[in-house]
Design brief:
The complex is a heterodimer of chains A (250) and B (320). Chain A has a single domain, classed as P-loop containing nucleotide triphosphate hydrolases (Rossmann fold, 3-Layer(aba) Sandwich), CATH 3.40.50.300. In chain A, 39% of the residues lie in helices and 25% in strands. Chain A contains 9 helices and 9 strands. A 6-stranded mixed β-sheet of chain A has the order 5-6-7-3-8-9, sandwiched between helices. Chain B is an all-alpha fold and 320 residues long. Chain B has one domain. Chain B is 73% helix and 0% strand. Chain B contains 13 helices and no strands. In chain B, helix 2 packs antiparallel against helix 4 and helix 4 runs antiparallel to helix 7. Classes of the chains: A alpha/beta (250), B mainly alpha (320). The interface between A and B is medium-sized, with 25 and 23 residues.
Chain lengths: 250, 320
Amino acid sequence: MEEQFIIEAEGLTKRYGSDIAVNQLTLQIREGEIFGFLGPNGAGKTTTLLMFLGLTEPTAGKVRVCGFDPTRDPLHVKEKVGYLPENVGFYDDMDARENLCFVARLNHIPDGVSAPRIDELLGMVGLHEEASKKVGTYSKGMRQRLGIAEVLVKEPSLIFLDEPTIGLDPDGTNRMLELIRSLSKVKKITVFFSSHLLEQVQRVSDRVGIMIKGGLVAVGPIEELAKTKLGVDKQHYTLEEIYMKYFKEA
Amino acid sequence: MRGIFAIFRKEMEDHFSSIRFLLISAVIIMVGVIIVSTVGMAIQEEVKGMQKPTLLFLLLFTAGKLFSFAQFLGFFGPLIGIVLGFDAINRERVSRTLSKLVSQPIYRDSIINGKFLTGVTIISIILVAIVLLISGLGVVLIGVVPGAEEISRLVIYLVLSILYVSFWLGISILFSVIFRSTATSALASLALWIFFSIFLSLGANFLAGIIAPTAQTAANPALAIKSIEIQRTISLFSPMTLYSEATFTILDPTRNTTNPLAFVLMGPFERISLSRFQNPLPLLQSLLIVTPYLVSIVAITLLSFGICYYVFMRQEIRTI
């Protein structure tokens, strides 16, 4: 049986004027995996995510997400895909439950269906007690967890997380990574997350992709990349070593 | 139209719980009630013992000590639109909620349509409420119940006013799409408001003076007429002039000029002589005069929203 890919990109390119943000990206993501998308700031990670979501049009190339073309059919893609942008925003004068309820309505989920789901999600991200507080009073970590809950309201089959742990304290980071892992293992949601914090990516990812200056220079499980780049025998390696090798070559 | 209802509902909740909505309705209602009570009492005084002339009821809207209610709305109405719209889009941008909205399964135009529709609804609610309030007060004060013609004229006046304020709503939403800072978009809308309400008429005088100098008018009356015509044409570019001329025509059928200046000079407390109320223009004739104005106001309102829609839809998501 042919393997199921939830994202298939081929030759995906985005130019802004004469600048190339993403160059000839070809990538397949399997259903249910956690994919870590690495790269320095400005490497084109966010632009790639935006193209996957149909929020920006590729200059060239093809992409299918959940079986739909995001450029032609953005609504179908957005129904199945949750996106947590870097520094997610909320309506600060509404409480957590109201924020999630609004997103549920935008997803055409009736209030009767969304209410128990929202309660469950708030419990899952550990915000049950703060659910009636205005989001304006939330800490960065709480906002980020609320962001995860918000992304899950529509019960997506794939979520994009853009730098989900940036600016979080160690405890917040751990909770976030635990959450990401449980989403994949328990809820069988495919997680595609971009980051430049290598140690964290190494802890949760099944596979990683390294993007440098708009080009994808490596894709695969971390062990495989370590074998090809660092030599077969090396037992102890970190993603950082691998990454730096690629980075110097580029 | 997917998602437009969810956005509409949330925006309505936002507006009704916002201080600015309370403030702007309070100001309008306060000023409206003050103007109309003084006018109402004065009319009551004047017509005591007389047979009540026709269309007296409309005087509630067109008379006033310093300015009438119609003039007040012509000048301050734009402010309602500006206050309701100046931060519609860039507020969402600043709080980073816009990128969230566009990644939900809704059409992108639902966002801008929903916001504009909410604004128009709020404007309609405020204006209908104030006109009803004034009418109620008027019935009590002058003891005249408005007839069918007066009611029709008031309905047309309401439609004109809602369109006119919505035009300014469109302008202010447009600025909120273009400018990232809410302060800048508010200032830009206010600047345009001041330009149209004050400087355009000054400019019209000035330009007319250049094209058709009035110095030789004594020798050549045709030139004077030409000068006035040029002045009128230029000032009609202002939505304020368009609106005020349309409202005078519809609300004050006994006045035989469309020159708004005459309206001010003759003053609200001119003696109410019976001749003032003779030979009012029939409703149909008023409608004929007002139709081009109405069409123009509809056009500029649609234009302001159209530009705003176009700019919003064309914006690269990165800048959102």
